[in-house]
Design a protein that fits this description.
33% helix, Structural Genomics Hypothetical 15.5 Kd Protein In mrcA-pckA Intergenic Region, Chain A, 17% strand, alpha+beta, 126 residues, elongated
């Protein structure tokens, strides 16, 4: 029988987060849900559970296939998690990447006249 593994450790092991600390923080912030319920880092996932990970602006969905507490190679992730993210969510990400060039950095202030002309020129292309 498989040993129970915390959700934060599982998220890290299947490479959804770079560190276990990041996975724990996301659980505490309420961005990780299992079957629609926000979970604490100590929750134990079971095979068949649907884990949703909210990384703005997209909510990724994964089905738990297997349980592991050890970090696995990228090629082996498919044995433990199945990506079932709806295509609509992925389109949001694509649109965000396409629009990313028109966003200004935080703290950059108001656009100058030249910046405004460049922005208007870019918007006319659409």
């Amino acid at each position: 029988m498989e040993e129970p593994v915390r959700i934060d450790k599982w998220l890290w092991a299947v490479r959804l987060f770079k560190t276990r600390t990041l996975a724990t923080e996301e659980c505490k912030k309420g961005r990780i849900t299992i079957d629609g319920v926000s979970v604490k880092p100590s929750r134990v996932p079971k095979p068949g559970d649907i884990v949703k990970v909210r990384k703005n602006p997209v909510t990724y969905s994964y089905k738990v296939i297997g349980i592991t507490g050890k970090r696995v190679g990228a090629k082996l992730v498919a044995e433990f998690a199945l990506d079932i993210t709806p295509p609509e969510e992925l389109k949001i990400l694509e649109m965000r990447q396409l629009m990313g060039s028109s966003e200004r950095d935080r703290g950059a202030g108001r656009p100058t006249k030249k910046d405004r002309r460049d922005i208007d020129r870019m918007q006319d292309w659409d």
